Amino acid sequence: MNRRRQTDRGDVRTPDACDPCGTLVTVKREILTVGHPLLRERAREVDPDELASKEIQALIDDLVDTMRAANGAGLAATQVGEMVRIAVIEVDHNPRYPYKPKIPLTVVINPVIEPLDGELVEINEGCLSVPNLRGNVMRHVNVRVRHLDREGTAHDDVRRGLTAGTFQHECDHLDGRLFLDRVEDTTTLATWEQFERFHRKAFVERITAFVERVGS
Ligand SMILES: [Zn+2]
Questions:
Q1: How far is the CA of 7 from the centre of ligand 1 (A)?
Q2: Which of 51, 86, 130, 149 has the fewest Cβ atoms within 10 angstroms?
Q3: Model pLDDT for residues 185-202, shown as the tens digit of each residue
Q4: What are phi and psi of 185, to 5 degrees?
Q5: Annotated active-site residue in 30, 170, 193, 196
Q6: Is 170 among the residues known to form the active site?
Q7: pTM above 0.85, yes or no
């Protein structure tokens, strides 16, 4: 079966990008999936002088369009095979992760993440590059995130809770790491269907109480 095909506009149609519904969606760029060697490489820093270039600005637009079309909470440039330290993050009533607090569209360039303390939380994660699989990973609850935005303005913010987890997940991609590498208890791995059936209720109850406590 031809699972992936180019449309006449150059967009890529993929059935994998729309977990858990499995329907065919159109994305701007093909999202590489686990096993592709580029997902395992460290991306390079973006030179601030490069930021204004047509290529980098077009890449950022493509990342935003592709993330939104695939219902992702974030997308890193490495996931579309571009080896630069750029990721986009946005959460707004996300059907893949309805329990995640909102995050306005954030373009992070050359991010540096620093844990503020030793507090950890176990989060059930999925990834557009790991079709139809979820699993539990430990993430820092309180992190300092420094990065540039698409205009080159420097940001220095504290991110907490599930939002901090999303930033850590995307920054991992820029270092060639997938959430799978952080799954310690492999019995938590589940397809989206089995997660819905057997694990969703308990996870959402726990994580909703956590989000209320931490505030995001
Ligand atoms: Zn991911």
A1: 24
A2: 149
A3: 999 999 999 999 999 999
A4: -100, 100
A5: 170
A6: yes
A7: yes
